[in-house]
Amino acid sequence: MQSAKRIEQEARAKAGNVSDEELALIRKAEETHRLSEAELTQLLGSDAAEEALAAAADRVRHRYVGDGVHLRGLIEFSSICRQNCMYCGLRRDNKKAERYRLDADTIVELARKAKGYGYPTVVLQSGEDLFFDTDRLCAVIRRIKAFDLAITLSIGERSREEYAAFREAGADRYLLRIETTDEPLYERMDPGMSWSNRDRCLRDLRELGYEVGTGTLVGLPGQTIPMIARDILYYQKMDADMIGVGPFIPNPDTPIGGEPGGDFHLTRRLVSLLRLLLPEANIPATTAMETMVAMGREIVLSSGANVVMPNVTEGDYRRKYALYPGKICVADTPADCRHCMGGRIAAMGRFVAEDKGFRHHRGAAERNIEEGARA
Ligand code: SF4
C-alpha cells in the first residue's frame, strides 16, 4: 500500500506539466459539464492533469452538493452468489470462499444498530442469492423501514417484477454497477451474463422510481481508456443518481487473479471527471481506493466524492465477504468505523450530513442564476 503523502507528491510533481489545452478542457468541463469522448480520453490519460482535475471537481462538488459527507451503513448479508464474474472472490466456482447468509432477524438488528450509529441510510448488499426471494426480502425491507431509514439494495440482477415488489415494500435506491459499458469486455468478464440484460435492469430500476447507482471497475484486463470515457457518457445519458468506481484488485482465487490491478491515479481522475460531468450525483469514496493507498478515501473525497459507506456488518462476516484481498477495516467494529470516519471527515473541514442524502436536484433556473453570476 502506498502512502497518501507519496501519492500527493507524485501528483504535484506531474502537475507542473499540465498543458494549456488540458487546462482549457478542465475549465470547459467545470463550466458546461460537457466533454466529448475524445476530450474525456485525453484527460483520463493525463497524469499531469490530475491535480487540476481534482481541484475543479472539488469546487463543483462544493457548489452542487455542498460540504456534507453522507454515510451509508453497509450490511453485507449474504456471500452466496449464483454468478461467476471473473474478477470477484464471491464467484460461485471459488471453492475457497467462506459462504454465509444472515437470517432476517440479524439483518434487521444490524439496521437498527446502524440507525443508532447515526446512519440515515442502510445499503443491503449480497451476492446474487436467490434464497432472498421477493417475499423474504420484502419482509426485511418493511421491518427496516419502520426505523425511518432510507434503504439501498445492491443484490444484482432480478426481474422487473421483483424490482417493482422491492420498491413497493419501501426500497429507495438500487446499486448495480455496469462495471464496463463495453459489451464484449463485459461478456468476457461476466460469463453467462449479458450486457443487454444489465442495461435492461438499470432502465427498469429508473422507470420504477428508484434512485439508481452504477459504476465502473477500473483496470479490467482488456479495458482501454476510451472505454472508460464511454462509461462516463453512458452515466451522463442515463442521468445516474450515484456512481461508484473502484480499481480492480486481483483476487488470487479467481481466473484473472494473476493480472495487474487497476491504477489508483486513473480511478481518481475518473472520480473527478464524473463530478465534473454529473455535478449533482452522489459519488462514494470507495473502500477499494483505501485498500490501495492509505487515506485513499480522503484523497477521493477531495477529488469530487461526497459519500462513504462504512461497514456495519459485524464480526467475522466482514472478512468472509471477500470480493478482493487486503480489504481494510475487517477487524474493526461498526462503532469503531463510525467514530473513525466522523473524525476523519471533520479533520478535512467537512461534516457528516444528517439527512438521508437523496440526490440533490437543482432546478435549471437556480443553475442559470449561478452561471449568470459567474459570467
Ligand atoms: S460481482 Fe456480484 S454477481 Fe459477480 S460473482 Fe461477485 S457477487 Fe456475484
How are the SSEs ordered, and which strands pair?
Elements (H helix, E strand, L loop, with lengths): L3 H12 L4 H13 L4 H8 L5 H16 L2 E11 L25 H14 L3 E6 L7 H12 L4 E5 L5 H10 L3 E3 L7 H7 L5 H13 L3 E4 L2 E2 L6 H14 L3 E2 L2 E2 L16 H14 L9 H6 L3 H6 L5 E2 L8 H4 L13 H14 L3 E2 L11 H11 L1
Helix pairs in contact: 2-4, 3-10, 4-11, 5-6, 6-7
Bound molecules: iron/sulfur cluster.
Could you give a short description of this structure?
The protein is an alpha/beta fold. It has helices spanning 4-15, 20-32, 37-44, 50-65, 104-117, 134-145, 160-169, 183-189, 195-207, 225-238, 264-277, 287-292, 296-301, 317-320, 334-347, 364-374; strands at residues 68-78, 121-126, 150-154, 173-175, 211-214, 217-218, 242-243, 246-247, 307-308, 351-352. The chain has a single domain, classed as Alpha-Beta Barrel (TIM Barrel).
Describe this structure as you would to a colleague.
The chain is of the alpha/beta class. It has one domain: Aldolase class I (TIM Barrel), CATH 3.20.20. 46% of the residues lie in helices and 10% in strands. It contains 16 helices and ten strands. It has helices at residues 4-15, 20-32, 37-44, 50-65, 104-117, 134-145, 160-169, 183-189, 195-207, 225-238, 264-277, 287-292, 296-301, 317-320, 334-347, 364-374, and strands at 68-78, 121-126, 150-154, 173-175, 211-214, 217-218, 242-243, 246-247, 307-308, 351-352. Strands 1, 2, 3, 4, 5, 7, 9 and 10 form an eight-stranded parallel β-sheet that branches. A two-stranded parallel ribbon has the order 6-8. Strand 1, helix 5 (104-117) and strand 2 (121-126) form a beta-alpha-beta unit. The termini are far apart. Mean pLDDT is 92; it is low at 367-375. The site of iron/sulfur cluster has 9 residues, from loops.
